[in-house]
Amino acid sequence: VQLVESGGGSVQAGGSLRLSCAISGRSNEDYFLAWFRQPPGKEREGVARIYSGGQVYADSVKGRFTISQDDAKNTVYLQMDSLNPEDTAMYYCASDADCNDIATNPIDWGQGTQVTVS
To answer: Which of 74, 86, 76, 82 is nearest to 17 (CA)?
Structure first.
């Protein structure tokens, strides 16, 4: 499985960015997708994950970030609005076939894309 993130960059506080994650190599359509981030000097944290029944967000991004998935299930997005400096981090796309593992320790990871908010 390959996950390739794009869309990161530098933005001023209050601005928006849209991250994309292209997924390839999965033969099983039953998998789950999530976004994580790792701020400088801090541990990695879950940001959002998507299920067939809805989405789950970290409290710190609820109401500002939106995770979505295209119909073909080969791209997942993270729309980030009202960004603030605390959102500065490396953002990672992740996937897993287990609905529990996707929240804590997914098996597949992208290389990450940097988001910097000043």
So the answer is: 82
Cα–Cα distance for residue pair 111/67, rounded to 1 Å: 18
Predicted local distance difference test score (pLDDT) of residue 72: 73
Residue whose token pair is 């897993």: 96
User: Are the beta carbons of 81 and 65 closer than 8 angstroms?
Assistant: yes
Cβ of 62: how many Cβ atoms within 10 Å?
Answer: 11
Contact 91, 113 (CB under 8 A): yes
- Compute the distance between CA of residue 80 and CA of residue 77 in angstroms, rounded to an integer: 10
Averaged pLDDT in 10-residue chunks for the chain of 118 residues: 95 98 78 94 96 91 95 86 98 92 92 98
